[in-house]
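cron nightly-structures :: item 1 of 1
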Amino acid sequence: MVNRAVLSHRLFTGLSSRHLACLIEELAVPWQAGVEGRRHAARGGARKRAAGAGARHQLVFVDRPAATLIHLRHDLPHSVLALLFGVDRSTVTRAVGEIRGLLAERGCAVPDRPGIRLRTLADVFAYAQAEGVELRLDATEVQVRRPTAGRGGRRAFVSGKKKQNTMKATVVADRHGHTLWAGNPRPGRMHDTTAIRGEGIAELFRHFPEVHVLLDKGYLGLRRDHPGQAITPPRKVNKICPPEIHAAQEQARHHHSSPRIPVEHALADHKRWKQLTRWTHRRDALSDTYRAITGLVSDRNTIT
């Protein structure tokens, strides 16, 4: 049995003590509301005993965020966490599922705007137009387990770039590398442009004409449909062009790639959490996990 203070240390949870305390305070009310809602559904009506009566939780609430963060940060099995916290494995599994869902619904923090969180891509575009922020958008892939043989849609997860079974998530960041939004992961075979179009970015470009987004060459289709807003690097020139044309083209590509680097740094921050280096669990839980981690990473903009 390990001391609770040790398990709450930054080396285990990835968060400072102040950040963890703020997180516990923030999640307490929605978690308790969820518990009471499930109890109300199980009873079929209002409670008949006073609040506080009945069985106690074997894993108290303040330990549940810590166990979930350790699982996200280091990908420790539920059985190991159960041994550390002195409870049954099923208790940890249930606690991780509850807290992970609450973390996923928090959204991403806004730099210099405490209390404001961006939960949808529309929120990000509205914020960017109001504050004059130039966005950076890119996709990243997370390796997943190979689907069972004989199951339909098995090839959809095979990435043409990585030659592995992956799922692809789209991330938006600002010029400082602060994460503003992360979309639901899609099968790795899906093209980057197709994935972001599924989030409704075409309609957002029309509703927010002053928003500019820096993209890589995988989003040339967006530049064609939304010129001036979707900004991609220039196409490569023909090999037979004069040397000065090649030099000008390389300089233009450099001027585009340098401001776009912060989104790559944002993706690297996400991959520091071990669960996003290689996902070995159920694929339907990856969406909540990715959004939970991006929300935690974005908290560093407002909490130290």
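cron nightly-structures :: done
The longest helix spans residues 243-270.
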